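A brief tutorial aside. Many learners find it easier to grasp structure tokens once they have seen a single protein encoded end to end. The record that follows does exactly this for Mitochondrial inner membrane protease ATP23. Read the sequence first, then the structure, and try to relate runs of similar tokens to stretches of the chain.
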Amino acid sequence: VTWRLGVGRVDPYVKLLLDAMKHSGCAVNKERHFSCEDCNGNVSGGFDASTSQIVLCQNNIRNQAHMNRVVTHELIHAFDHCRAHVDWFTNVRHLACSEVRAANLSGDCSLVNEIFRLRFGLKQHHQTCVRDRAILSILAVRNISKEVAQKAVDEVFESCFNDHEPFGRIPHNKTYAKYAHRDFQNRDRYYSNI
């Protein structure tokens, strides 16, 4: 089965991230920056900072909605790589920050996904989900203890959870993402008129 990368009118999360990457001087080329591969375990995708490439695990992506979330999650890492000097390989706090942002902004913790996981009804549910997903993502890519991953997430959580760039807000669904994209496109227009 071949899934679409979510480019164009299909997915507003992806559209905004691609525009933000281009605006930041890191335009994404579909042929160069995406790789579809079979992956071990149940990982759905990853961002390879050494090649600036998003790897999509074709054997673990279930449907188009899942594909869109994976692409969005990994594009958030690519955006962070573009705009900040992220030390992916030796600074676990940098990795933790990008994982918090990706879990928070990609739809990973949407109510629909959490109900599908049979996890809902908790107080401050979104924050709890973001924290848990960030820790799981760190453990999937680094050979460290759960305690070290939790500590890294706790240390960066507040500032990274509140960093909503390039969305400007937490896009809880596609409608929010469309509004965020419209606002992003209008940012430069507003500032150029001052």
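Self-check: Helices lie at 12-23, 30-33, 64-83, 92-105, 111-116, 125-141, 146-161, 174-192. If you spotted this yourself, you are ready for the next section.
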